[in-house]
Design goal:
Number of helices: 7
Strand order of the largest sheet: 1-2-8-3
Shape: globular
Structural class: alpha+beta
Radius of gyration: 16 Å
Helix content: 25-40%
């Protein structure tokens, strides 16, 4: 199955993620921006299961990681490059922000993460780094989210921390 066929099948299997949106609209945007296909392919290869998340009152289409748990190919990472450099002993292989930037993808914001959680239950066993305000990052921290006990929680941790169950979810704008 080709990437476009996979994306279309996922889109059609989950209409609750993008009510009232037709695949033809998405396909036209993808045709107009062929450069995004490599980022979508990377999201798919790393286990993100990207799909369109329809946001109310927005002309913009967002492809985001809709895998049940944080993408398996993007775990055990600290938050950003500064945190990676700080981690001299037992450093992780990479950082979430650096991976995202290298692929032309953004980390989900808190609002985007909350929007994703309205169409399903995600990160019930894992957690995902989210875009962190500079006011928190400048103090050495970073934010992550997860769903437990039927609720979505936002937590903080040192940006240089990394865990086998923490990764990141990305957003690609069309």
């Amino acid at each position: 199955m080709t990437l476009l066929q996979t994306l279309q099948a996922r889109f059609e299997a989950h209409p609750e993620r993008h009510p009232g949106l037709a695949w033809q609209t998405v396909a036209a945007r993808l045709d107009a921006q062929p450069g995004v296909l490599s980022a979508l392919a990377w999201m798919e290869q790393t286990g993100g299961e990207p799909d369109v998340l329809g946001l109310p009152q927005s002309e913009e289409l967002l492809y985001c990681d809709c895998s049940k748990e944080t993408p398996a190919g993007r775990r055990s990472l600290c938050y950003d490059e500064a945190a990676l450099k700080k981690r001299a002993k037992n450093p992780p292989a990479d950082s979430a922000v650096r991976q995202a930037q290298a692929q032309g993808i953004a980390l989900m914001s808190r609002a985007q993460y909350d929007a994703l959680q309205t169409v399903g239950e995600f990160d019930c066993k894992t957690s995902s780094w989210i875009s962190t305000p500079e006011s928190v990052r400048s103090l050495g921290g970073a934010l992550f989210c997860e769903r437990r006990y039927g609720m979505v929680f936002t937590f903080h941790n040192g940006a240089d921390s990394y865990y086998s169950v923490r990764g990141w979810r990305g957003v690609l704008r069309l």
